[in-house]
């Protein structure tokens, strides 16, 4: 239980960085934290106490493995997170080049 | 981008081949051991990143390598979809594992899985290298 | 399981440092610490595939972050400034939301199987037929490249999309004169 | 041979080919993209024919039986969505040809455009929860990049805002998937639906559904979470605004929400009326708040963006009514609003292309100089307001009939009355932009752009006049597909498998 809750805490720390921080890089860091939190929670729910990593080494022994599906899904999710982070950093870099600041309070061309 | 000192350069020269080989190993053994196309592809991208960081590139080389990377990326993607479509053409189902499964625990087994791993490896390696070039090395990518 | 708690605690501390420190480079290094502790946790929960991918992706993420910071600035000027009124309002709203979210998610987490007792309805089927039907000994590779290959095609496409997106946004000018 | 995976494979392969084609000969890129989108349009018509014969086609990826592998579940609702997507994608492609002549990096635009198409198509066809997330991310990442495509300051800023909001939505959805997986240990939508029957109504059930509704209300830009939308639509290039307003928000938010509520969680008005009343409330909030805000807007595209948010509210209202006519109205509204709003954003693009201004105060008297654009605007606007005989009228009528049949007279009256809001803000544009006289010389609208607008106008008029067979053969079955609830799961497991 504490293990799952610490994932939720990591999620909230990331959300805090996104909502409260005014620095663009900090917001990107917040996103990375949220992505980690969800990935970690997903990987943890597939764990089985006393089981082995899901790689078969011998054919005839009885298999007692952890759940391979969350591992496969988290693999996909990590890559998606990498793609999003790269795109977000590109937008941040271009914004910096135009406004010379990371402070979102100073970047206000849009209203509302 | 400028290169680094002579020490970095000579150490890079020694290690770069081994890292590349390790990446290829990870890709080819993806169906037997942990790792696979994605992890191996990132390692291969790392080889090129290391090379660029250590030796530096001039503008024309940058442009050339980003073009080559984008072509390789398209090829990797087409290879992957191609394997999927072959399943459709040969046996009538998208993504069917239509090749013989082979003997377990051998390098040449598991049907299309190693092929897919290779396609993903090429694609990921090329793609991440072009992200690195775009964000770190080139001032701006010049117009096509 | 004491080592698991240790790394979870380390992860949370590093995450707080990453959000609060003034120097952006240090923040990114702390982010790297979070990522690496997660990679180690993956090893503890018997997920070597994930650990490998997490490590290489973490390295690449940090490299990209550092590349962007080196081309711009590494000081967070917003730290230490007086909070604006809207920010205080946002902080209060966020605190309320966080408490609510925590309570509701604890209620929900109590209803899923406890840590270490995965249900494995479909997964046990994979374990049973995985090797004989696909021929791959690594069950995770079997899942991502055979049973759920469409996800992997999607994953490769996401990466392709973001590469094209990065290249498109790094053009010199948007419009022709 | 079955065609269902081709809806995803064709745009995907063309996206991989376009970078190579762009290096060979540049004009090849737009020719190829237009051809591909036309082919998709033809294929989508064939999909409608397929679903007339069988109510649900299951396509097993890699020939694995449902809970093991990923399946594509293609029913009448999916077929209808594919048709709407294909129509608007084709029109946007046509419109982009000349519009993009002012911009650099054409092959990048078309690659992202095709990736986005592949993503949207994937969302509506897939029968697997995690796969839905993956396609959602493909389409979303492509759209973030496309919003910033012009590289101006406000475009980058809008893209960043959109990315922040959109990713919070996406990651919340992933969190919900993780919780759901921990409980039911499967990812197939049909299998989840079966497993959830046993825990229907528990705290866990509502918590996960709440997370999903939260995630998709961000993606659909419903009112408390809409703030990205009025920035992103005006900032994007006109064809992308059309695509975003016409199909993206509908597919990202509304389609997914409807599918998950009706078919997966199998909630119905009969069992849980309070949940549907919340949906109605959210719909009304969007309609009223965004409609009133639209009245004060000074920018042509921003006004249309608020109008879009308000119209999405009507769709949610239709689903919230929850009986057959309400759902028919909502589904019809997806089409009606997609066509009309895409057309209105086309007119904004045509104005931007000619005089490069979008502030309503700076524009006047364009009616004489740009007759095609002006008449397209008028017809699109009448359809949005809901005047007969255009397609928007019938959609609204079905929602009102649904409300009356459900005994919610006041909702029926409100739906009719709130159309006046749309009338008010669209008249503002008509009066200022198209009516007055001007002396300025304006360069004409290019031929392909006019073709795209005329294509949409023809569809709006034809579907408006011939709505009866359309409702009988396409929308009615789609509504039945949604309303059959948990029956969906049984159909997937016994589903008709197509092959050679």
Q: Would you write up a description of this structure?
A:
The complex is a heterotetramer of chains A (112), B (144), C (177) and D (500). Chain A is mainly alpha-helical and 112 residues long. Chain A has one domain (2-48, 65-99): Helix Hairpins (Orthogonal Bundle). Chain A has helices spanning 2-20, 24-45, 68-99. Chain B is flat and about 55 Å long. Chain B is 69% helix and 0% strand. The model of chain B has no long low-confidence stretch (mean pLDDT 80). Chain B has one domain (6-137). Chain B is mostly helical. Chain C folds into two domains: 1-79; 119-172, no CATH class. In chain C, α1 packs antiparallel against α2, α5 (121-134) crosses α6 and α6 (139-147) crosses α7 (149-169). Chain C is extended. Chains A and C meet through α1, α2 and α3 of A and α1, α2, α3, α4 and α5 of C.
Subunit arrangement of the protein: heterotetramer
Strand content of chain A: under 5%
- Gap from first CA to last CA of chain B: 21 Å
Helix content of chain A: 55-70%
Structural class of chain B: mainly alpha
Radius of gyration of chain A (Å):
20 Å
Element-by-element helix/strand order of chain A: HHH
Identify the overall geometry of chain A: elongated
End-to-end separation of chain A in angstroms reads 41 Å
Number of domains of chain A: 1
How many domains, in number, for the residues of chain B? 1
Mean pLDDT of chain B: 80
Q: Sketch the topology of chain B as an H/E string, one letter per element.
A: HHHH
Count of discrete alpha- or pi-helical segments spanning 4 or more residues of chain B: 4
* Strand residue percentage of chain B: under 5%
Would you identify the CATH architecture of chain A? Orthogonal Bundle
What structural category characterises the helix and strand content of chain A?
mainly alpha
Number of strands of chain A: 0
β-strand number of chain B: 0
């Amino acid at each position: 239980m504490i293990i799952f809750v610490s994932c939720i805490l990591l999620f909230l720390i990331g959300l805090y960085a996104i909502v409260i921080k005014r620095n663009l890089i900090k917001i990107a860091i917040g996103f990375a934290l949220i992505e980690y939190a969800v990935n970690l929670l997903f990987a943890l729910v597939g764990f089985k106490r006393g089981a082995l990593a899901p790689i078969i080494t011998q054919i005839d022994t009885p298999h007692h493995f952890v759940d391979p599906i969350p591992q496969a899904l988290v693999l996909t999710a990590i890559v998606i997170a990498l793609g999003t982070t790269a795109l977000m950093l590109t937008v941040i870099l271009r914004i910096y080049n135009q406004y010379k600041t990371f402070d979102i309070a100073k970047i206000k061309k849009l209203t509302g | 981008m400028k290169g680094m000192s002579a020490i970095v350069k000579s150490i890079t020269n020694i290690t770069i081949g081994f890292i590349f080989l390790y990446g290829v190993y990870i890709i080819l053994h993806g169906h037997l051991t942990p790792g696979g196309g994605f992890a191996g592809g990132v390692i291969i991208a790392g080889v090129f990143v290391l090379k660029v960081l250590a030796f530096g590139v001039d503008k024309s080389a940058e442009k050339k390598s980003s073009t080559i990377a984008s072509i390789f990326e398209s090829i990797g993607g087409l290879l992957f979809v191609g394997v999927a479509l072959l399943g459709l053409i040969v046996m009538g189902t998208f993504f069917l594992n239509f090749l013989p499964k082979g003997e377990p625990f051998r390098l040449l087994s598991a049907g299309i899985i190693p092929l897919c791993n290779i396609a993903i490896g090429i694609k990921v390696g090329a793609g991440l290298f072009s992200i690195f070039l775009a964000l770190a090395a080139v001032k701006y990518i010049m117009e096509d | 399981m004491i080592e698991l708690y240790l790394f979870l605690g380390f992860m949370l501390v590093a995450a707080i440092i990453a959000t609060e420190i003034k120097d952006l480079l240090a923040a990114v290094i702390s982010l790297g610490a979070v990522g690496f502790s997660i990679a180690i946790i993956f090893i503890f929960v018997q997920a070597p595939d994930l650990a490998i991918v997490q490590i290489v992706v973490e390295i690449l993420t940090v490299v990209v972050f550092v590349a962007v910071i080196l081309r711009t600035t590494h000081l967070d000027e917003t730290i230490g400034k007086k909070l604006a009124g809207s920010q205080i309002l946002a902080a209060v709203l966020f605190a309320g939301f966080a408490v609510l979210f925590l309570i509701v998610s604890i209620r929900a987490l109590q209803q899923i199987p406890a840590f270490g007792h995965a249900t494995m309805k479909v997964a046990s089927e994979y374990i049973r037929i995985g090797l004989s039907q696909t021929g791959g000994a690594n069950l995770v590779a079997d899942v991502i490249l055979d049973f759920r290959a469409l996800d992997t095609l999607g994953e490769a496409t996401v990466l392709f999309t973001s590469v094209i997106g990065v290249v498109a946004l790094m053009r010199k000018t948007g419009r022709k004169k | 041979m079955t065609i269902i995976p081709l809806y995803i494979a064709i745009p995907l392969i063309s996206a991989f080919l376009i970078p190579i084609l762009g290096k060979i000969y540049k004009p090849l890129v737009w020719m190829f993209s237009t051809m591909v989108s036309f082919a998709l349009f033809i294929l989508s018509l064939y999909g409608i024919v397929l679903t007339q014969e069988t109510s649900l086609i299951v396509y097993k990826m890699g020939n694995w039986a449902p809970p093991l592998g990923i399946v594509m579940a293609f029913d009448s609702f999916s077929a209808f969505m594919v048709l709407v997507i294909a129509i608007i994608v084709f029109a946007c492609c046509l419109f982009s040809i000349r519009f993009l002549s002012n911009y650099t990096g054409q092959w990048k635009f078309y690659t992202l455009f095709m990736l986005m198409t592949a993503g949207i198509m994937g969302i509506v066809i897939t029968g697997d929860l995690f796969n839905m997330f993956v396609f959602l991310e493909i389409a979303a990442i492509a759209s973030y990049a496309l919003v910033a495509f012009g590289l101006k300051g406000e475009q980058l800023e809008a893209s960043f805002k959109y990315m922040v909001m959109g990713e919070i939505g996406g990651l919340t959805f992933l969190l919900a998937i993780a919780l759901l997986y921990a409980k039911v240990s499967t990812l197939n939508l049909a299998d989840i639906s079966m497993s959830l029957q046993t825990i229907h109504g528990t705290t866990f059930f509502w918590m996960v559904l709440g997370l999903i509704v939260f995630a998709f209300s961000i993606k659909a830009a419903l009112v408390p979470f809409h703030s990205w939308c009025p920035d992103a639509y005006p900032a994007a290039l006109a064809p992308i605004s059309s695509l975003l307003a016409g199909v993206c928000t509908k597919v990202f938010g509304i389609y997914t929400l409807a599918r998950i509520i009706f078919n997966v969680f199998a909630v119905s008005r009969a069992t849980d009326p309070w949940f549907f009343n919340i949906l109605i409330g959210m719909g009304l909030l969007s309609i009223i708040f965004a409609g009133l805000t639209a009245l004060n807007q000074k920018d042509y595209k921003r006004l249309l963006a608020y109008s879009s948010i308000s119209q999405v509210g009507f769709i949610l209202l239709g689903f919230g009514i929850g009986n057959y006519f309400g759902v028919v109205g909502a589904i019809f509204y997806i089409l009606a609003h997609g066509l009309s709003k895409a057309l209105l954003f086309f007119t904004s693009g045509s104005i931007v292309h000619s005089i490069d201004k979008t502030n309503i105060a700076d524009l006047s008297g364009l009616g004489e100089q740009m007759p095609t654009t002006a008449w397209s605007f008028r017809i699109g606007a009448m359809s949005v307001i809901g005047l007969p005989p255009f397609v928007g009228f019938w959609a609204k009528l079905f929602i009102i009939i649904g409300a009356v049949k459900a005994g919610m007279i006041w909702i029926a009256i409100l739906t009719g009355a709130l159309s006046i809001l749309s009338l008010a803000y669209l008249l503002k544009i008509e009066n200022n932009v198209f009516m007055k006289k001007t002396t300025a010389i304006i360069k004409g609208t290019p031929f392909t752009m006019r073709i795209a607008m005329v294509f949409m106008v023809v569809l709006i008029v034809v579907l408006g006049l011939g709505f009866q067979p359309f409702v009988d053969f396409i929308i009615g079955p789609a509504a039945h597909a949604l309303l059959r609830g948990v029956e969906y799961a049984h159909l997937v497991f016994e589903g008709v498998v197509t092959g050679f």
